[in-house]
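Practice problem: IclR family transcriptional regulator
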Amino acid sequence: MTAITPAADVDDVETAAEGDVPRPRRSSLGRVHQLLSAFDYEHTTLTLSQLSRRAGLPLSTTHRMVAEMVELGMLERDRDNDISIGIAVWRFGLLTPKTYGVQRVALPFMQDLYATTGLPIHLGIQQREEVTVVESLRPRGGGAERPRIGQRDPLHEVAVGTAILAFTTPAFQEHYLHGLDQRGSTNPTSAALRRELARIRAEGYAVNTRRTAPRISIGAPVLDRRGRPLGALSIIVPAGTAETPYGHVIRNTARAVQRTAWEQGLG
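Answer key — structure tokens:
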């Protein structure tokens, strides 16, 4: 007797639009990640169709998953039925050991530095080849000033990132520098960045204007006992400001955070 093959679930193959090449279905967890990744600072609220398009998922799949994620508190709907990230996701994020421990230790020192200077102060954590801002203190009315909590940038693009990159393992640095050359002319060459990283290791702080120009971002690493980065602090100063005094200030603040982290068993 011939075996009967069950009909395929309509979501076993995903197509973004008629005529597209079918794509194998991602796991449920992968699709949850696609949905959550569709949101950013410029798209904090989305309609169902916008969410489907930005996540690259069929509308039927998006509709079904959104209904379940709303019930679980991972997504929320407003009075217009638009969708945003839910409180449950924020609560889970607060429990991340890699961010919570360093953020908890660093925050009092960041507050002291902010109270003294009145300038924006940030804390960043490495996430593969990017840095994520996990804490930010800034003057009221700062508006769209970079960076913002949750923002991610390539390590070489911002001071918190280059401060971290300078103290990663030689193997990781070589991998990153090779990838930088492969990505093209809009990035600094590996030779230029190699010189920059050597200067950061010698002076203990990074100076970067790639994303903050004309303002100057100055960052310093918070290291574990092996000399590897737990994160980095940065301060953003106005254009034309002398870099060295603020470099020493942010370096000393990062080292104070580092000592306290060690005393509390972090790193």
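Discussion: The domain at 96-263 is CATH 3.30.450.40 (Beta-Lactamase). Students who identified this feature from the tokens alone can consider the problem solved.
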